[in-house]
Amino acid sequence: MTSLYSQEIYQLVETALEELSQEHQRGKLADAPVPNQYYLVRWITKSLKQKRFPRSVTDDLIRWQKAGRSQGNSVMFEPLFRKILAYYDDFFQSDRSNQITDKQIEQFLDKLETAGWEVSTAEELVGCGKVQLFTEQPNSMAICCGQCETCFDGELLMHPMSWFVRGNHAQLIELAWQAGFMVHKRTDYKSNVKYHGEYLIYPGNRGEQLAEIPLGFEPTPRF
């Protein structure tokens, strides 16, 4: 059976944190932000060289390696990894049902409108070149009308669906999490829908890249 990205990224960060904790327990590493950061930067580089993890998470390791080299301690990997682990725990290690239905999406769009967002599902947006939507509100989200039909088998989401977003992306990610959706960013701004970024939601929330984590999400310590 082919393993899933959600399982592989979970295993990666869990392994990193477990091995970091083992270094603390052996007395080889002080449990403090800077030593932890140095250890994890080296751990990431070593994991890449050894090809320790599946190819599906290689891009994450490369991105983290570059960030560790160029941004230094401004990107702290220990809290980031803890947040990733807890977020995927929240979706896949709990009793949460990750099946996504058309009704759930409709309810989410209603919630967005209540929060002052402008919502559109009436336009063809995917596979038709550059599109411009004329909206009055600063925050807007659009879904391709074609995908509202083709992404479902009955009531269940069976294919990835694009959400085109302008405005308060952080609020969109927060509200999506509260509604039971993992969202996966393709672009902040330059999608084929002018002035809108693009996110994907996947069947069963099983994305093929790292999900966006809400700013308000706080992990529960495990190690």
From TrEMBL:
InterPro entries: DUF2913 (IPR021316)
One protein family per Pfam: DUF2913
UniProt name for this protein: Alpha-acetolactate decarboxylase
Species in which this protein is naturally found: Vibrio quintilis
